[in-house]
Amino acid sequence: MQHTETREASINIRALRAQRDLIDKAAAVRNKTRSDFMLEAACQEAENVLLDRRLFHLKDEEYDAFESAMKAPVGDNPALRKLLTNKAPWES
């Protein structure tokens, strides 16, 4: 994930020396700075947490719209049909 914006928000964290050393070793393996390594790892985990949500709180009108969308007939999707009929690369 490459961003060209200027970083302007500060995140401060205290760690044990052993934790910092571990992070530094891993960052060096990836040829990254400690900050870049930590930010990338934290953002990846944040995305995983948000994508793994199973419970959604909706207002009544939002739930009705969601339920209608789920009950609506599925339209033809040639791209999806093609994707689902192709073998996975590891099955070839």
Please give the oligomerization state of what you see. single chain
Count of distinct strands: 0
Distance between the termini: 31 Å
* Individual helix count: 4
Total number of domains: 1
Relative helix content: 55-70%
The low-confidence runs, each spanning 5 or more residues with pLDDT under 50, are none
Overall pLDDT metric: 91
What fraction of the residues are assigned to beta strands by DSSP? under 5%
Main beta sheet strand tally, sense and closure: none
SSE series = HHHH
Q: Output the radius of gyration.
A: 22 Å
Shape: extended
Question: What is the structural class?
Answer: mainly alpha
Give structural notes.
The protein is mainly α. The protein has one domain (1-72). It is built from four helices and no strands. Helix 1 (17-29) packs across helix 2. The longest helix is centred in the middle third of the chain and has 18 residues, at 34-51. It is extended, with a radius of gyration of 22 Å. The two termini are 31 Å apart. 0% of the residues are buried. The mean pLDDT is 91.
Keywords, separated by commas or semicolons:
0% strand, 55% helix, mainly alpha, 92 residues
Layout of strands and helices, then pairs:
Elements lengths: L16 H13 L4 H18 L8 H12 L6 H8 L7
Helix pairs in contact: 1-2
Short description:
By secondary structure, this protein is mainly α. Helix content is 55%, strand content 0%. The longest helix has 18 residues, at 34-51.
